[in-house]
């Protein structure tokens, strides 16, 4: 029943199928995929570790993509990118 709890990307897929509003996102497997996400979503980008969702890294430009990926431990652990969503604390 709760098969998606530890995989944040699978959560996003599940929630989007049920019309729960979320920032646009895409799974990335390599640096070219990260660059493609930057072209699609613009910068800054929020990179997230898919498993458990504990760590995040922000890339403000294409030049920062490699360091953001490295900060999250590389592509082997599963990464996805979210379009930047500005939040306003109320």
From TrEMBL:
Keywords: ATP-binding, Nucleotide-binding. InterPro entries: ATP-grasp_carboxylate-amine, ATP_grasp_subdomain_1. Pfam families: ATP-grasp. Gene3D superfamilies: ATP-grasp fold, A domain, ATP-grasp fold, B domain. GO terms for cellular component: chloroplast. Transmembrane segments: none annotated. PANTHER family: PHOSPHORIBOSYLAMINOIMIDAZOLE CARBOXYLASE, PURINE BIOSYNTHESIS PROTEIN 6/7, PUR6/7. This is ATP-grasp fold ATP-dependent carboxylate-amine ligase-type domain-containing protein. It comes from Castanea mollissima. The lineage of its organism: Eukaryota, Viridiplantae, Streptophyta, Embryophyta, Tracheophyta.
């Amino acid at each position: 029943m709760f098969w998606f709890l530890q995989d944040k990307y699978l959560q996003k897929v599940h929630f989007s199928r049920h019309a729960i509003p979320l920032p646009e996102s895409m799974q990335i497997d390599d640096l070219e995929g990260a660059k493609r996400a930057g072209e699609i979503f613009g910068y800054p980008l929020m990179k997230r570790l898919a498993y458990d969702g504990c760590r995040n890294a922000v890339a403000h430009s294409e030049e920062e993509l490699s360091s953001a990926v490295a900060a999250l431990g590389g592509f082997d652990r599963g990464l996805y990118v979210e379009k930047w969503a500005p939040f306003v604390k109320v």
